Amino acid sequence: MHVLKLFDLTGKTAIVTGGGRGLGAQIAEGFAEAGANVVLCSRKVDACQEVASQLEERLGVKTLALACDISNPNDVNRVVEETLKRFGSIDILVNNSGATWGAPVAEMPLEAWQKVIDVNVTGTFLMSQAVGKVMIEQKSGKIINIASVAGLGGTDPRVMDTIGYNTSKGAVITFTKDLAVKWGPHNINVNAIAPGFFPTKMSKVLIEKGRNPILESTPLRRFGTDNDLKGVAVFLASEASSFMTGDVLVVDGGTHA
Length: 257
Fold this sequence. Notes:
The structure is a single chain. The chain is an alpha/beta fold. It contains 8 helices and 7 strands, in the order αβαβαβαβαβαβααβ. It has helices spanning 3-6, 22-33, 45-59, 73-87, 110-138, 163-183, 204-216, 230-237, and strands at 13-17, 37-42, 63-67, 92-95, 141-146, 188-195, 248-251. Helix 5 links the parallel strand 4 (92-95) and strand 5. It is globular, with a radius of gyration of 17 Å. The model has no long low-confidence stretch (mean pLDDT 95).
């Protein structure tokens, strides 16, 4: 197979949670540019609809925008049902929706901890479980979980005082590895991306507060751009990565090196 064909997603259907902004929108754009039909879902459906309309108009792919709280099983099941009704299959799932909360550990409210874990961990489980049932039936599928460099180890509290977020992303990494082992026999690839610092709505305050320390610890001396993640996501969603599963690709400008 020609190498460019390995990255072709024409005819594939991808669900991207949190696809209305930030990294989710960037990933959705990459999938659409590679030819995939894209389903965007989040609690803010208007943002998803805006991105979906732009992708359809610019790239000619088919899209669907749906409201979804990924920690709510009923919402998750509805997204799966609507996707199957519209496209007939689900080839790719990106678990990108996330939440964070900044507070010193001794002052972290329990409800804040529970919110972060519910979205980042339980939501990833619920979406993977619901979509995985379809992929098991199809005997194929690609699941990409968006982790974080914060899940690889401890972080300086002057930059990230986010114990719940860090813990949740560490859990996502372990979930990725275990699910890859469980579902490999069904021809389902499960991998994760651990981004470093990309300017998004969620990271805005962190970057403003810790800009200099972050850049000083990043060998490439810059933050991620609108083009730095989508190629990696297309790679993991395509045939180019068909012999990879249970892996975590770190995209952080070299911070972890």
